[in-house]
Each structure stands twice: as C-alpha cells, then as structure tokens.
Design goal:
Blueprint: H1 3-14, E1 19-20, H2 23-26, E2 42-44, H3 49-61, E3 66-69, E4 86-89, E5 96-100, E6 105-108, H4 114-121, E7 126-127, H5 140-146, H6 153-156, E8 163-169, E9 175-179, H7 190-194, E10 203-210, E11 212-213, E12 217-225, H8 228-240, E13 247-252, H9 253-263, E14 273-281, H10 283-299, E15 304-307, H11 311-322, H12 324-329, E16 334-337, E17 340-341, H13 347-361, E18 364-369, E19 375-376, E20 378-382, H14 387-406, H15 425-428, H16 431-444, H17 460-469
Parallel strand pairs: 2-4, 3-4
Antiparallel strand pairs: 1-2, 5-6, 6-10, 7-11, 8-9, 8-10, 12-14, 12-15, 13-14, 13-18, 16-20, 17-19, 18-20
Helix pairs in contact: 8-10, 9-11, 13-14
Amino acid sequence: MKLAALVRKLEKMLGREAVLWQPNDVMLYEYDGLSSLRPPDVVVFPRNTVDVVRIVKFAADHKLLVVPRGAGTGLSGGSLPCQGGILVAFARMKKIVEIDLENQRARVQPGVVNLDLSLAVSDAGYYFAPDPSSQKACTLGGNVAENAGGPHTLLYGVTTNHVLGLEVVLPSGEVIHTGGKFLDPLGYDLTGLFVGSEGTLGIVTEITVRLMHKAEAVATLLAVYDRIIDATRTVAAITARGITPAALEMIDGFTLRAIEEATHAGYPMDSAAVLLIEVEGLKEAVEENAQHIESVCQENRVRQVRRAKSAEERDLFWKGRKNAFGALGRISPSYYVQDGVIPRTRLPEMLEFIEQTATKYGVKVGNIFHAGDGNLHPIILFDRRDENESKRVREAAAEILARCIDMGGSITGEHGVGIEKINLMPYLFSADDLDMMRKIKEVFNPEGRFNPGKVLPTSKMCGELRAEASVGGVL
C-alpha cells in the first residue's frame, strides 16, 4: 500500500491527531536507548484497546508489519522498526485504570510511567517494586516487554514477579486475558510467557500488577574500597552469610568519579570501588542485618562504611546510581551498555576479563552493576564517528557476553535480546531450544508481522543492520 493511502485510512480510523507520517516526525521513532535503524512508515497513537484492535486488524488485512513502542528507553533495540511498517506508540494510553489497595493490586494501561505508579500510591504507604534506572521515563508496557529489573531485584525480583494479569491483542485482532488479580489461576501460565516476549507474541494493552507495602525501616550503606577485588569478595561474603539485601550495587572507581562530578552524590573520588547496599524490613531486623553487613565489609578490607543518616542522604546516594549512564555521557560522545549475567562468586574473575578485553581492543570500560544477582553492566566508551573504534567495540562486547555464557550465565538480565544479542542466541541455546521458541512464537504470531527481527535469529534485514545498531548510545 502506498504511504499516502495508508495515512488516509489510518487518519480516518483514528483521527489526524493520532497519526504521524512526515519524515521529520517519524525519524524520532527510529531511535531507542541502544541506537537507531530506520524510521517507521507511520506512527499511530491509540487511546484504548479498541483503537489497538482496529489498528491490528487493519494491519492484518493489508499484511503490514506492526512494532509496539513504550517510551523508547530500551537498550537492546526491541522497539526499533527493522523494516518500516506501523509503529504503535503508547504515549496516550497512560491511565491508571484501578487501584485496589485492599488487595494490593493495580490495573494500568501500558503507557503509564513506572515511577508514576509508585507516586500514585505512595501516600497510602505502597509502591511498585521493579525500579529500572530509567524509571522516571520508562513505561510499564516496555517493562513487561523486556522483563525489566532494577537495583532492588535482588530481594523483590524482576517485572514478571509483579505482573499478575495481562490484556493482550494478538496479530489477528483477537483480545485475550491472562491471569488476573489473584495468584495461581487455573491453566497455563500465559502471563509468564508474554512477559519478556518483547512484543513478538502480542501487544499488551492492560496490565494487572502487585503493589508492595513500604518497609517499616530502611538502612542504606555506602562501602568504600581501595581495591576492587575486595568489593567483589564482599558481595559473595554477604550472601554466604544468608543475608539478602534489598539492593547490592557495585560501581568501579572510574565510573564513580564520573558520577560524582555530575551529581555530587558524596562518592569518594579516590576510591577503587564502592558498594551501595540497602536492607529493608522490620526495624529490628534491618538494624541487625546492617550490623552484620558492616562486619562483613570490615572483614574484606573496606576503607569506610557510611550509613545514610536521613532520607535526603539516602536519595542522594541513589541519585548517583540512577544517573550513572548520563554521567558517563558527559565524558564520551557514545557508549555501549552491556547486560550480562554471571554467578556472583565469579565477579572477580569476570572483572579481570573485562579489563583484559578493554586493553586488547584499546577501549575504555566503566563498570556498574547489580552485584548481588550477578547482573553486569560494563559500559564501553567510544566515538561512533570512528568506524575502526566502533568495530572494536562490537568485538569487545561480543567477547564479554560470550564469556558470561561460558561462566554459566546469560546474555541478558533485564535489557532483553532485541536485535542486539540475536547472534549470541545460538551460543546460549541449542538448536532444539531455538526451534521450540520459534514454534511457540508461530502459535501466536504465525506470519511474523509483530515486531519482526527481534529475539530469534530469523530476520535478514535486521541482521544486516545489527552491526551498526549494536554500538548506539549517542548522547
């Protein structure tokens, strides 16, 4: 179908204000937090499930590709249009449909910003636990698509642990409902199947989530180290004691200096690494665990353990961690964020490998990660305008993720596969595993029109563009 005819039909269906098609408008949607590929042919803004059904049925009738998009903060290219088509943006589906505090539940549209849900229930003493670093901007629909995590996943789990039910539009236009407000519904766990499927099985139009009570007490500790290996050993020692903090984050010296210069969070500029540790729960248990953690830090040659004395100081510590990527963007024109997972006992070995890899390829790497659950975020700094350096960055990144697999880990903890990591899927999974995944996908998306070229290595088009897209993060 010619673009002019496509636009006319969509405008008649949704209204002119809900359709973008001019080149200067749609080019803004060829980007996410990873990089850019090519613009969609047209961008549409549904306001409700009925609109989404109409869009999907129209696309099915005309054999058009459909790509769902939240806030575009993703870091694996999951919402990028590989081959044009209709991009469905959920910026106008941002209603909190229901808050049920009695049952600690909420129903939301996919365009609700992560932090906004917590703010909506904060005065009543509740919050939504998954807290990605981009929580001020990222949407719950995107969190569901990528199974997003955040610093507090060590204790509370990732998005899938807090999603109880979904409303989903399938490629045929059929609307299905999975799960519900209550635990353990009868039948197959389709909710768990759709969470993390990156829009390749269906488009989520409503989400039922679990709300959490705020903890009675919180203790936030900043442990300062002169040697990075002592910080990594502390991580393993804390969990070996049977203590599970709410968060256990690690930042290396290079990265924390960039953070401190940008945010003035109070991180010591001369240290080799810091651990940001948080424990939550009943007041007595929090105090006991905080003391145990400080003892473990002392046993592992910590220079200093600082405890936040106020909510303001706690927020300042976390401001540094949450703004880490932006801080690095101040000192590098481009950076590439990795998202691998390893057993936490192998952190010292992995950090040594990352340093060796950086030296091998002549690149600078900063390390910031969810140390408690072994979720690494090495950040490779480079200049995208330098083709040779960009090539070295891709090669270094591939080696780092491959080593994660070799150590018994995975290629993603919370950022998804998207287009970024498709080449490593056959290294992580057997041919039989991948074949089973394709068969499941074909049950829901038999023609492959929903978010093509993502997760599974099947799209030639995305494959051709992947090399360029895999070194994004231009700031």
